[in-house]
């Protein structure tokens, strides 16, 4: 039976409950000889970790903020979904090769099961936003807005959607265009880390932009109910937290690494229990 390490690499990484969730899944499937750990790596240290992970007996690892795009240049090959999204959140060692995958699209799709259409606004232009762009494009959204802060990342995202023939407008946080788009939107997706532990008093947008016809999906899962979701609920909007995405993308990563289905109920329970203990 396969043995070794799995893990998640990001910066910072202290907020992550992936080790608790994934180790629960490993134990439930009788994989006690595999351990899932968190690895904190600053951007300047990412290449060193990726190049040395196989020699530390890693089977593979997850990739989280802020490395989902930058990790690509250190890999040997991309799976078709990672090629499409141009972002990687799962790496698997296949022989001598480091292969990148993307399971975030599956995670987004798992959260948007009910029919929602019309105008959608995505906050962010990073790896999570790329996954959201592909998922929303597949679901038939044709009126998309994306919001960014830095012109450099906004321009990179603009090139990405052009390569994918996705029709969308890219606006700046704090702009009148973004405010107007949110007021007219039926779906709002937060693909930024704003509101994530420990900065739980932060919200990516002003409260007065939220309305009762809005469905708000926040990719942040720690805390389970972010300030954005709390305000949304108070103002009559429908809210979707990030736990379902966390579990869905993690379960797909498990299948990629080990070739079997994990117990997703065990994963969700472990993640929620860990988050409650951190309050």
Automatic annotation (TrEMBL):
Active site: 68
Gene3D superfamilies noted in UniProt: Leucine Dehydrogenase, chain A, domain 1 (3.40.50.10860), NAD(P)-binding Rossmann-like Domain (3.40.50.720)
Pathway this chain belongs to: Metabolic intermediate biosynthesis; chorismate biosynthesis; chorismate from D-erythrose 4-phosphate and phosphoenolpyruvate: step 4/7
The keyword Amino-acid biosynthesis appears for this protein: yes
Catalytically driven reaction(s): shikimate + NADP(+) = 3-dehydroshikimate + NADPH + H(+)
Annotated NADP(+) binding sites: 219, 242
Matching InterPro entries: Aminoacid_DH-like_N_sf (IPR046346), NAD(P)-bd_dom_sf (IPR036291), SDH_C (IPR041121), Shikimate_DH (IPR011342), Shikimate_DH-bd_N (IPR013708), Shikimate_DH_fam (IPR022893)
Gene Ontology biological process terms from the UniProt entry: amino acid biosynthetic process; aromatic amino acid family biosynthetic process; chorismate biosynthetic process; shikimate metabolic process
Family, as annotated: Belongs to the shikimate dehydrogenase family.
Quaternary structure, from the entry: Homodimer.
Reported function: Involved in the biosynthesis of the chorismate, which leads to the biosynthesis of aromatic amino acids. Catalyzes the reversible NADPH linked reduction of 3-dehydroshikimate (DHSA) to yield shikimate (SA).
Protein name according to UniProt: Shikimate dehydrogenase (NADP(+))
Organism the protein comes from: Caldiarchaeum subterraneum
């Amino acid at each position: 039976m396969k043995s070794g390490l799995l893990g998640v690499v990001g910066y910072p990484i202290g907020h992550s409950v992936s080790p608790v969730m994934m180790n629960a899944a490993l134990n439930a499937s009788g994989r006690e000889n595999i351990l899932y750990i968190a690895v904190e790596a600053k951007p300047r240290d990412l290449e060193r970790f990726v190049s040395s992970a196989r020699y530390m007996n890693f089977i593979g690892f997850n990739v989280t903020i802020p490395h989902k795009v930058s990790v690509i240049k250190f890999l040997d090959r991309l799976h078709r979904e990672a090629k499409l999204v141009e972002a990687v959140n799962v790496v698997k060692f296949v022989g001598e090769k480091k292969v990148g995958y993307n399971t975030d699209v599956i995670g987004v799709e798992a959260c948007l099961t009910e029919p929602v259409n019309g105008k959608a606004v995505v906050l962010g232009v990073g790896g999570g936003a790329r996954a959201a762009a592909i998922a929303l494009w597949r679901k038939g959204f044709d009126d998309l807005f994306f919001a960014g802060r830095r012109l450099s990342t906004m321009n990179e995202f603009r090139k990405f959607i052009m390569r994918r023939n996705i029709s969308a407008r890219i606006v700046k946080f704090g702009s009148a265009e973004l405010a107007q788009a949110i007021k007219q939107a039926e779906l709002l997706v937060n693909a930024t880390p704003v509101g994530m532990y420990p900065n739980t008093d932060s919200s990516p947008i002003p409260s007065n932009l939220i309305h009762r016809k809005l469905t708000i999906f926040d990719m942040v899962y720690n805390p389970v109910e972010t300030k954005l979701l709390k305000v949304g609920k108070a103002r009559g909007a429908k809210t979707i937290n990030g736990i379902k995405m966390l579990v869905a993308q993690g379960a797909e990563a498990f299948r990629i690494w080990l070739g079997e289905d994990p117990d997703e109920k065990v994963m969700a329970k472990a993640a929620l229990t860990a988050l409650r203990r951190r309050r």
